[in-house]
Amino acid sequence: MAVVVSRSERETLDLGRAVGGALERGDLIGLAGPLGAGKTVLVRGIAWGVGADPAAVRSPTFVLHHVYTGGRITLHHLDLYRLGSGTDIAFLDLEHQLESGAVLVEWGDHADLSPLRSMPVGFEIARDDSRVITLDSAAAPDRVRRAWRIGTPRT
Ligand SMILES: Nc1ncnc2c1ncn2[C@@H]1O[C@H](COP(=O)(O)OP(=O)(O)OP(=O)(O)O)[C@@H](O)[C@H]1O
Ligand SMILES: [Mg+2]
C-alpha cells in the first residue's frame, strides 16, 4: 500500500497530476471513500496531468459518465454512487472504454472491478480534515507507483 496524507485540495490535485502523467490507455482506477473525500479532486488533477481541461471535471453523479478529450489520452470518468453497492458493471461496457482511454470510477467499490484489473485508490477523511489516500500498489504498474511517489507531498 502506498499512503499519501493530503493536507489540502491543492496537494490532492498535485498527486493526481503526477498520476495523470503516467496513465496509459487501458488503465482503470477505482476510487473509494466517503462523500466529499476528494475523489473528484483527484480526477481533476489526473485530467490536468494528461493535458485535458481540469475545469471540465465534475462529479458525474447524475450523468454517470463523462469523457475528457484534448489530452495525451482520453479519460472516461464514471460515478457509481447512484447505482448503489453490488452494481453489475456489465452494462457499462468498461472494456470498450478501456480500449479508447483510461477509466476512472468514483465509488468503484460499488462494483467488482477486479476482473478488469483495476488499481484501487481509497480515501479517508482524518480527524484534522486531511485526506489519507491509499493506492493498492500491488495492483499498479511501476510507472504509476513511481508517479504516486513523485506526487506525494513533502512534509
Ligand atoms: N486534502 C484534500 N484533498 C481533496 N479535497 C479536499 C481536501 N481538503 C479539503 N477538501 C475539500 O473536500 C471536497 C472534496 O470534494 P470532492 O467532490 O472531490 O469529493 P468526492 O470524494 O468526489 O465526493 P462524492 O462522493 O460526493 O463525489 C472539496 O470541497 C475540497 O475542497
Ligand atoms: Mg465525486
- Measured on Cα atoms, how large is the radius of gyration? 14 Å
Specify the number of helices: 4
Helix content: 25-40%
Structural category is alpha/beta
Which band does the percent of strand residues land in?
15-25%
| Order of strands across the main sheet | 1-7-6-2-5-4-3
The named CATH superfamily? P-loop containing nucleotide triphosphate hydrolases
Ligand set = adenosine-5'-triphosphate, magnesium ion
Main sheet specs: 7 strands, mixed
Mean pLDDT: 95
Distance between the amino and carboxyl termini: 19 Å
Uncertain residue segments: none
Summed up, the domain count is 1
Summarize the model shown.
This protein is 28% helix and 25% strand. It has 155 residues and is α/β, with parallel strands linked by helices. It has one domain (2-151): Rossmann fold (3-Layer(aba) Sandwich).
Describe the structure.
With 155 residues, the chain is of the alpha/beta class. The chain has a single domain (2-151), classed as Rossmann fold (3-Layer(aba) Sandwich), CATH 3.40.50. The chain contains 4 helices and 7 strands, in the order βαβαββαβββα. It has helices spanning 9-22, 39-50, 94-100, 142-151; strands at 2-6, 28-32, 65-68, 74-79, 101-106, 119-125, 131-135. It has a 7-stranded mixed β-sheet, sandwiched between helices. A hairpin with a 5-residue loop joins strand 6 (119-125) and strand 7 (131-135). The longest helix is centred in the first third of the chain and has 14 residues, at 9-22. The protein is globular and about 45 Å long. The protein starts with a strand and ends with a helix. Adenosine-5'-triphosphate binds at residues 6-9, 11-12, 33, 35-41, 59, 81, 106, 130-131.
